[in-house]
Amino acid sequence: MKATFLSIVFLVLAVIVSATHNQTTSTQHHKNSTAIAITKAKSQNYIIQIRRESKLEEFIHKVEDFFENLLEEIADGLGELISRDEDGMKNKFQVHDSYDIGGIFKAVGVKVADDRYLDRMSGLADVTSIIPDDEIQFDLPYAEKRKIDKRYYIRHVVLPNSSYQNKYAENKTMSPVSGAAKETHTSYVANTRGWSSTILPTSTDSSHKSQPTKVMTSDNDDDIKYLEQSGSDTPWNLIRISERSKNYSLPYIYDEIAGQGVTVYVVDDGINIKHKDFEGRAKYGWSFTSKMANGGNKTTSSYGSSSQNTTDNAQDGGGHGTHVAGIIAGKHYGVAKKANLVSVQVLNANGKGTISSLLGGVQWIMQQAQNKTSPIIINMSLGVPKTTSGAKALNEAIEAAVEFGIPVIAAAGNSKSDACDITPAGSKEVYTVGSTTQQDQMDPNSCFGSCVNILAPGYDVTSAYVGSDTAFATLSGTSQAAPHVTGTAALLLPHMGDKVKPKDLYKMLDDLATPDKISDIPDDQTPNAFIFNGQKKSADNTTKSA
User: Fold this and answer.
1) Neighbouring residues of 299: CB distance < 8 A, sequence distance ≥ 6
2) In this predicted structure, what is the pLDDT of residue 309?
């Protein structure tokens, strides 16, 4: 009986919608003269984006009034029948989220039981787009998948079936390892424009908690002191970004501030914050898989798969975000070893997320930024093809964050195609990173083109992982390249003064980059510019033309 009733309701609704589609809903609802194409959502969830000048709260009330008027029209058509299931009909349309990112990007998240409502809603003058908010599947590296190519890419982006890739997938993927001892040495070295001292190195255990020894610095124009990380297991990728030319017998050199005071928001699948490599500098922030995040901020939790990769906490994710975070700021694996990390979990451990989860994460970062005086950076080692429904809205939201003053560093993508076709990598407002190998070749699966800003190590990079507080894994891709640049940005920001604009940070990264060191770049639009962390220990590293 109930099914029959609803069938009658929707039949009458269709007649009403058809009859009134070209009329205004009421005198207060001005018609949108621009036709809006609407793609039907599988989940019944939609994001309604509105104009920048529109007031979000007023629009929400307008939508509620619109739906009440629609119900009255249906009631007039059905007579007494509507009173029998009025509450049920009201549940057919719900506003469950709102987004205001810097007063620039504005939208509401709604659930609509029948997409025919949307035809009427698109007539509101405030509305600029209506986007389906379905799950997007990302491919994440899982510990139990021993033979997969551990690259991070959108599932519907097809990777080339080259012999190179097949060989990599079979031979190069490594499972996480727990508790292996590390022999790492750290020492202080002053800027050698004057003089420096030699010190005996200090070894560390598996937690990598070495205690460096200070040395006297020379009396010169630049009093920055430097640390050295040496030893047989010093990550090759760290050594490479602190040298103008490839020489893996050298230590990793970085300034002693090491990003202290800088906060990096890792927009990803979560972080294993208890990992020893983070030394307590990582914390949970926003999570779309949890009802509560960061001590009480309400988040949506209705999307995504409930199944998780095996971790102690669902907010740890499947390992990808932990790996990225380790490259940014791990004590052993990281570039900026004293920077703070905040997990912004927009994907679950199975690599599923929605546009709304990404919007929610970016909005939460914006809210945190309003109360912060210290430097912040966003790392996004993820992306969607530009053709994905909702990619345009996501791009606009991220650009709003940059306009607000937050630098965004993004992975170029691993589809061996033009990075301009990936969001957010294709945005001119973000700083986009391509991937290279230990042999100074461009990773053959890295995206390329004019939207790439810089190149960084991304192939066979070892970093922290999930499964234990000492686990690590070796992964490849532009997801691993981007955090090298984010970490370098964290090293630079403490020396750049207050209120640094994103464009100024981007220019500093450009100016420091080493030119013409990378081979096998597939086109003439990709800049042959390799990340350099700015260390000035030796005269060779003060110039680009090493």
Assistant:
1) 286, 287, 288, 290, 291, 292, 293, 360, 364
2) 40
Element (H, E) at 330: none
- Between CA 2 and CA 63 the distance in angstroms is 27
H helices present in 79-113, as ranges:
81-84, 86-90
CATH-assigned architecture of domain 139-172+259-534 = 3-Layer(aba) Sandwich (3.40)
What's the angle, vertex CA 176, arms to CA 171 and CA 177, rounded to 5? Answer: 110
- Identify the band that residue 186 occupies on the pLDDT scale cut at 50, 70 and 90: very low
* Level-2 CATH architecture, domain 2-22+38-134: 2-Layer Sandwich (3.30)
Match 């464009």 to its residue by tokens.
Answer: 503
Is-contact 491 329, C-beta < 8 A? no
2-22+38-134 and 139-172+259-534 share one fold = no
SS (H, E, C) 14-75: HHHHHHHCCCCCCCCCCECCCCCCCCCCCCCEEEEEECCCCCHHHHHHHHHHHHHHHHHHHH
Q: List, by residue number, the catalytic residues.
A: 268, 320, 479
Domain range annotation of the chain? 2-22+38-134, 139-172+259-534
Outline where 289-430 has alpha helix (H): 320-329, 355-369, 391-404
Dig out the tokens for 532 from the structure: 């350099």
**Interhelix angle for 478-492 vs 320-329, to 10°?**
30
For residue 194, name the pLDDT band (cuts at 50, 70, 90): very low
Q: What is the dihedral of CA 333, 336, 339, 342, to 10 degrees?
A: -50
Q: Any idea which of 13-22, 29-38, 39-48, 171-180 has the lowest mean pLDDT?
A: 171-180
> Rounded CA gap, 187 and 200, in Å?
8
